[in-house]
Amino acid sequence: xxxxxxxxxxxxxxxxxxxxxxxxxxxxxxxxxxxxxxxxxxxxxxxxxxxxxxxxxxxxxxxxxxxxxxxxxxxxxxxxxxxxxxxxxxxxxxxxxxxxxxxxxxxxxxxxxxxxxxxxxxxxxxxxxxxxxxxxxxxxxxxxxxxxxxxxxxxxxxxxxxxxxxxxxxxxxxxxxxxxxxxxxxxxxxxxxxxxxxxxxxxxxxxxxxxxxxxxxxxxxxxxxxxxxxxxxxxxxxxxxxxxxxxxxxxxxxxxxxxxxxxxxxxxxxxxxxxxxxxxxxxxxxxxxxxxxxxxxxxxxxxxxxxxxxxxxxxxxxxxxxxxxxxxxxxxxxxxxxxxxxxxxxxxxxxxxxxxxxxxxxxxxxxxxxxxxxxxxxxxxxxxxxxxxxxxxxxxxxxxxxxxxxxxxxxxxxxxxxxxxxxxxxxxxxxxxxxxxxxxxxxxxxxxxxxxxxxxxxxxxxxxxxxxxxx
Length: 471
Fold this sequence. Notes:
disordered N terminus, transferase, two-stranded antiparallel ribbon, mainly alpha, two-stranded antiparallel sheet
């Protein structure tokens, strides 16, 4: 495998007049696409809203009341019950279409918004991840809040957010520091400023954390110690289990949107396929932690996800916008020499196949590994979340997404998948040997502007001496 740094990237040079004209036409094209998308979403909104109202009315007229009780505050629709055994018939639930329509309505909006953000590029995807992390932190912070204790601790909630944003500054500073340097290399003032910020980044984050630590100690109150230490430990658990794992997503984004988009899409496909197969065919419960999960849904989703992985890898791998790594924080279009993983190869088929051969991207074989993990292992992130919610006796982490619950309910499997995608990419895709790009990255990150000029002059002299010796 070739290291990405050997590619020619256009994000670090000044755009030419031709590129500006190209961007102008691109903006016009984007406006047309946004207008069309807005019309489509508006029409879908009207149609689905009417369908939901009709289904609610029909359910109110036809629904019979049995002995099945709804949990207080739950928006679940109870299923039919076998009168002989008293168990739910998962595949014969006559009153589940209302929740299905609400869930489908939210899913369409989420997928549409996701496609738009991916189209906009790396920085917009990063911003989306940050917003999702903030929503997840808010939902999890609220789990252990006790109103009585909070009234006696004014400003204590700010401490949790102080620690959260300090962790965000540290993690993203480490991930994006080199790309920030590459963005400002052409401006001497900004280059020096950014260089100093990166140099003292770790010590800055450390003292911000120590400030929070001292803040916590000074805020301790008698008879409130247990609650305060519980909140402090809970905040750190959120940072480790939620924030750290989801931050791997950002590292995947800048290695190429492909390595973010494919794993995320596989989780979405697996979730939708499991819901559909379980909705229509589900009869056998899969795990006690999540009674609505069925073996039929799990198996059907696994097959669908693995097939989708192979197909989507071929589709996504043909767009440089998705496969080229982003070495800076600019928003321009990317052009690079495709990695061998994304160059088509002829694959011979068995003689009984109608076609003798077909073109396959080598990355498709890696996609099968991602699909296998997304279909078998990643769902355990959802099972973990289900057990977690049962421990706190709640149905959902929040209610920000109708039909789905909170943001954390949608991201449980994504976090597990993001970590695996990053580890897989670093272990099996990125070349581990020292390359020219790695050396240049270290030079730019660790040497001052004057030291780089001195190194450039010395390298030039060495090359001249070698050329003179050869002649």
